[in-house]
Amino acid sequence: MANLRLHFLLFLMSWSLLSFGGTISITGNGEASHAPDEYRFDIIVTSICYETTKAAQSQNSTLANQIIELTQQYKLAPNDKITTSPGGFIRSTEYVPTENDRSKIICENRWKTWNTIRLTLHDFSKLPKLQEELTTFLGSTEAVNIDKKEQTYVQISSPQFSLTEDNLNKTRKLAQQSALMDAKNQLQNFNDSCDFRSLKLMSVAVPTFDSWVRYGTKSASISESSTPVIPEEITVTAAWSFTWEFDSAPRCYN
Length: 254
Hints:
This protein has helices at residues 2-19, 53-71, 127-138, 165-194, and strands at residues 22-34, 38-50, 81-97, 103-121, 151-156, 160-162, 200-204, 208-219, 229-246. By secondary structure, the chain is α+β, with helices and mostly antiparallel strands.
């Protein structure tokens, strides 16, 4: 009698697994690449240790305008941009490190202001010359002078490579299509194994994107030692999740 009861319970469990459905969630992954077609870098002009805001602004604006005038010749394409983001004024105490790893105070409670010039350009062949010309023009203003109080100096960031908005959208679309195909292939493989019955799509998540830069040996076509290394391509990745429901999946339980 006990054996009969056990066989009956096993039959009920098997029947319920075969008869009741569930859901399956799959995330498809895809990627697409495109050569970079845009670069940008920031030039930050900082004025420190001035007695008045007027003096700080005057010196800052003078150097910033000279930099803008110098870089205008590199603004060739319609979508090339040179933008400025002036900062405010703050009273600050300025420190600089010295050779013995101790800080030296340049000034206390003096006025400080800054201005960020952003260059967004598209002619990669001009980049080495632009960097060299800026370095030559700025000279000693690229660092803080520890023996001077009132001063204006410049910091230049490394070039950041990217895609124009149009090409970024196209590359994202290709990566998304690749993620969709990956999800379809995964679903087909599961279906071949499980034999889903009455499979129905329940939900589609918003795709997520990421990107990374791949560097090779490519560089701008100029012989200077300061020639920047330009990425060979920017890869955009996409992840797209889907959920399906099904009435049963007989072969999944064998």
